[in-house]
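INFO batch 0412 | record 1 of 1 | parsing
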Amino acid sequence: MIGQDLLSLLVALCLGAFIGLERELSDKAAGLRTNILICLGSCLFAILSRAVATAAGTDITRMAAQIVSGIGFLGAGAIMREGEHVTGLTTAATIWVVAAIGVTVGFGYYSLGAATAVITLVVQSIFPHLDTMIDELRQRHTFRIHSDLNDDGLEQIKTIFRNSDVKVLRRKLMKKADLYYSEWYVAGPRLEQKSVVRMLLENKHVRELTY
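INFO prediction complete | emitting tokens
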């Protein structure tokens, strides 16, 4: 039994290292050591859960079940909000999956744990390129515009957004001194947003544009 437990820890170490190495090479917050330790710790809890439950005749999943909720606190620490963007979600999800792999290996399902690790590596290595392609089609930015206190000029700005291939998700308008100040939070293709920037800069009523 001890030999099997040591094998489980060794397998967990290797699988955590495979995923952690990819994260390290991608320069992510949770890198090699972090993923190894998460996988090892989860595996050890699963081994202890199995051993204690067998000896005491209790539910084998009680201790391991706490990993699911406990790992959430670690994942939450990786999530950061930077202005309108949220980062770290993929890192948090990876931490959650690595913990699941550790538990799977700790209960002796080596093939399932290894298969999950391979799938995770495929997702982490290939899907970012797909994400980049999708982001090109639905980038989100905020246009902050200072324009003349002129209703016709404001209408021209509205027309630029209305006639472009971008979707206005949210807008705000107010007066500042002798100017209109407007914010336009939009989503759409990158090239189309650049076209909007060009048209706004060419508009004689626009005094300042932040994009």
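INFO post-check: The chain is about 65% helix and 20% strand.
INFO record closed
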